[in-house]
Please model this.
Amino acid sequence: MISKPQASVTVVINSIAQSKKAQGIRVFNLSAGEPKLKTPKIIREAAMKFIDIGDIPYPITAGEKVLRKAAVDRMREVHGADYAEDECLVTTGGKFAIYLLLEYLCGLNSPLKKYPNEYLGVMIPAPYWVSYPAIAKIMGGRPVIINSTLEDGWKLTPEALRKAYEADCKFLFLNNGCNPTSVIYTREEIKAILEVAVELDLIVISDEVYSGLVYTDDEYVSCSSFPEYKNNVFVIQSTSKTFAMTGWRVGFVMGRKDIIDVLIALTTQSTTGVSLVCQHAAIAAFKHADEITAEVNALMKARRDVMMAAIKKYFNVDIPVPKATLYVWVSLADLGVKGIGDDDFCIRALEEANVATVPGSSGFGQHGYIRLSFGAEDEDLIGGIEALAKFAKQFN
Ligand SMILES: Cc1ncc(COP(=O)(O)O)c(C=O)c1O
Model:
């Protein structure tokens, strides 16, 4: 049952794009899941100041106390969460927080297993971020995909959750600020999902790494704002998107202390913790969180608008404007493309037109769609959409 671990499709496409670039080919990269901009100066300066001190020892595995406090304080201020410092672990990005959580709770020695080689069900609403099923499989879990549709607004519903549930299911992923659909959930929707999840005794892994990239007046609702469900929920957070710090690799998991303590123990046997240079950078980011978030958010919103205008101009189509994240999720049909699957379309667009995009089928569990990232700079957004439209003409 345990197959060879898969490389993330988004990372693979991004690396083909990078290698074309290294050969001097102009690639329009609309595939990367990151805001393409310099990490704010104040953050870089804090890191350099720390480097200059010169003494850079192993970190305390759980993370610097000041950083854990800054992260939980921010969650309190913005979302009304109630976590203590020791209910928060600093991780090597949000991705590793998910990895650790499933390693402990779904892996070989999971306390939730009745016998060691049992496969626990990991419920994953689709379209999903590519790493959820991949990590679940690496940990010996059984991904249980819950499909949604355009008509559902690409949202998980309590009814769909109930219907997909099977007795071995122990986890539910919820990605609010969803990669790839950009969907955000209302308070009522989250509450209804949490109610059913708790009734089914599921542990909810609430991936909120895009909570800082929301471009609407609609309320962004964190699962941490429901104290009554605190024992069932783990929140994944990250500095990557909100503070333009993808390469620094600083993320967080917040939840029950007894479980956080085990994740700390697992970290001592893997990464040892996050580099102190990066932690000091993140501490500075939290000190200036309001300004930095506002700046990154405004820039990404402007880039979103540039991409939407380019889609309108070159494809001559109006598609819904994403309310959050960094992604336009669009069907090939809406782009006027017929007679080719999304995987082939994206591979050929990269090979033949030098535009990197991510296919829905191998990337996100939904065929017929592609994901276009507006994290890139304006020239990539405009040039990329123009080149993609030219390439797409042959499939009209
Ligand atoms: C939905 C989602 N969750 C988590 C992550 C992980 O982010 P990081 O490991 O950079 O914190 C990403 C990154 O692309 C993502 O899109």
